[in-house]
Amino acid sequence: MTATTAITTGRPPGDLPERRPAGRRFDLGQPFVYLVALVVAAVAIGPVVYVFLGGFRTTADLNADPAGLPDPWTLQNWATVLGAPRFWGNVFASIVLAGGTTLGVVIAGIMAAFVIARYDFRGRQGLYTLFTAGLMFPLTVAALPLTLLLRTLGLHGTYLGVIIPSIAFALPTTIIILVPFLRAIPDELEEAAQIDGASRLGFFWRILLPLSMPGLVTVGVLAFVGSWNGYLLPLLVISTGTLPQDLWPLPLGVTQFSTQYSQDTAAVLAYTSLAMIPALVFFLAAERRIVGGLQGAVKG
Amino acid sequence: MTTVLNPAGPATSAGPAPAPGRSHRRSGSVRQRIEIAVLMTPALVLFLGFVILPVVLAAVYSLYNLPPAFRWEHLADPERFVGLANYERAFGTPEFVRAIGNNFFILIASLLVQGPLAIGIALLLNRPMRGRSVLRLLIFVPYVLAEVIAGLSWKLLLQPQGGVNAALEAIGLGEWRQNWLADPDIALWTLFFILTWKYLGFAIILMLAGLQGVPEELAEAAAIDGASWWQIQRHITIPLLGPTIRIWAFLSMIGALQLFDMVWVTVAPTVRSMSTETMATYMVQQGQFAGQPGYGSAIAVILFFISLIVALVYQRFALRRDLAGAITRGVR
Questions:
Q1: Residue B47 CB contacts under 8 Å (≥ 6 apart), including other chains
Q2: Which controlled-vocabulary keywords does the entry list (chain A) (predicted)?
Q3: Residue A17 gets which letter from DSSP?
Q4: Backbone phi and psi for residue B64, each to the nearest 5 degrees, phi listed first
Q5: Which of A50, A93, B26, B70 has the fewest Cβ atoms within 10 angstroms?
């Protein structure tokens, strides 16, 4: 850290005419701070609220007064969207894609991370470097050849065609997070397990896996959210395939719906807000994981 | 974008030291080799087959003139091999050159606007206050939404007859109304505004998290010595926040260069090609929807090298201390 250099740049004591107790100044700023907080929060959720409220309006009402409140309130849009198989098909597809990706990333990731973290062999270093280098290979760069490759493999237009590359591209982050995690588990535990007759894999299964649960959850949440929100891969793999629109994942489904029903703004708003809900709920449930992961990340 | 939470990557990989002295254990035994092979294979096959191979293939394809219905035999056809012609074509196409410029516009504008804004807000909010956790949730909402969904919401808001124009009129600023996303002169600025809305919360949360690591004692000591609030922030807190700021800037830059979803969803194709094209949208447009995988691959390779150069230069000059070579040197 840069603590020492920072302190020396501070002003010498007594340079200032007046000395006041530290706490007081902070109190003076308080109303201003709340104002800033309020503005920031309002700007952040304003558009989201607008979309949600719009879902309760009729298109005629929206056209007459785009910035107003619902008048009258209607549940018609929600009923239409929720009553159609299309929305549920989109949700189903997103769950399959995100669930499959998460499962794959966690399983393949923990296995590889276990080897890199706790086996001693030549090439271990090279493997780790290989995966970290993967951070420099974004999906965007690989997308076109990947699409062609999936065609060759017969995976184009299928869920697996999205899931498999998603797993592959989530692996670098996963392994980078899990390796230090597995390393931190003390050797003594492994030795004790060995004395008690456990094999390497027995130790992995019975002791390491339960102990690394928090790391696995963090990695899983990241993979799930990434896949749930992903657009480029489904666009290239699914939307150009033969799968019916009812079975497209949400991001594709929402864009498709908004193009198709562009005249019916209220329905589009309802569809969009419904598409937001799963991500928001998931975020509320995993908020501490996500934000906690960030905090852990910047402490280094 | 899946790379967004990557700070966890570089920073933590420099974390716990590997446990030494594990060599006493039957290293090199047949059993161990089998275990390593079985455990490594899934990840390695996936990674090599679906990350590394496609990037290598992009480089190969970029040297060919390929039809949309691509077959492997085309690579053996000398008529289709065009050398660097795809690259020449890309750099000779004003639309693509403008796309590079747009990516760098977003990159620089993000650093100049979002960075100071996020730091300022985080400094203000970094104190015990009521409703702090609720506030943290709310400012994180835009970041959690899919870029596509956020983009669509803004597209609806920014229609000529949408909520934003109506709101401007309602508060007497009717002459400020614009065709925000359809006017080529301002579409890029509008886009930048939407991106700022989407990613500012992430930056603030990241800065707040970084501020947790700044010891309060230092600020208290300085305050006792008579430093003003601003002096404390300027000379103590912000310098200590340095590593967080640099990692945020890195993520922001890489994100700006890869920008795709938001542009693709919010701006109509005709307007996009005139004013807000990015490298990635141009790549997908040409490579997929205009049926030129060879040309699109050349764009992908250019995008890759531009990102790589930016990342390496930045790492060389700014991230050196923070990562201590986490990416280039690996485990230790």
A1: A130, A131, A134, A168, A171, A172
A2: Cell membrane, Membrane, Transmembrane, Transmembrane helix, Transport
A3: S
A4: -120, 160
A5: B26
In a domain, A188, yes or no: yes
- Binary contact (A141, B7; C-beta < 8 A): no
CB contact under 8 A, B283 and A112: no
Nearest CA in chain A to B117: A40
Per residue in A78-87, pLDDT (tens digit) is: 888 898 889 9
Distance from CA of A295 to the nearest CA of B (A): 5
> For residue A131, what is the domain's CATH number?
1.10.3720.10
Q: For chain A, what is the domain count?
A: 1
pLDDT-derived band at A18 (thresholds 50, 70, 90) equals very low
Query: Which residues 255-284 on chain B approach chain A with CB closer than 8 angstroms?
Result: 258, 260-261, 264-265, 280, 283-284
Distance between CA atoms of B24 and B324, rounded to whole angstroms?
29
Q: Nearest by CB to A121, from B36, B247, B326: name it.
A: B36
In a domain, A228, yes or no: yes
- Residues 109-138 on B with a CB inside 8 Å of A are 121, 124-125, 127, 129, 131, 135-138
Question: pLDDT-derived band of residue B17, with 50, 70 and 90 as boundaries?
Answer: very low
Taking CA atoms, what residue in B is nearest to A127? B44
CB contact under 8 A, A298 and B206: yes
- Summarize pLDDT for B137-168 with one digit per residue, the tens: 888 889 889 999 999 999 988 988 888 888 88
Chain A with chain B: Cβ pairs closer than 8 A: 423
**pLDDT tens, position by position, A225-243:** 889 999 999 999 999 888 9
Interface confidence (ipTM) of the complex = 0.82
Nearest-5° angle of CA B27, CA B29, CA B34? 110
The shortest C-alpha distance from A103 to chain B (Å) reads 13
Cα separation, B158 vs B244, whole angstroms: 33
Half-sphere exposure of A146 (CA within 13 A, CB side): 34
In this structure, is residue A119 part of a structural domain? yes
Domains of chain B with CATH codes:
33-329 (1.10.3720.10)
Contact list in A for residue B225 (CB cut-off 8 A) is 10-11, 13-14
Residue A105 has pLDDT above 90, yes or no: yes
The residue range of the domain holding A97 is 85-299
Task: Say if residue B42's pLDDT is above 60.
Answer: yes
Residue type, B58: A
Q: Is B81 helix (H, G, I), strand (E, B) or coil?
A: strand
N- to C-terminal Cα distance for chain A? 9
What was the pLDDT predicted at B194? 95
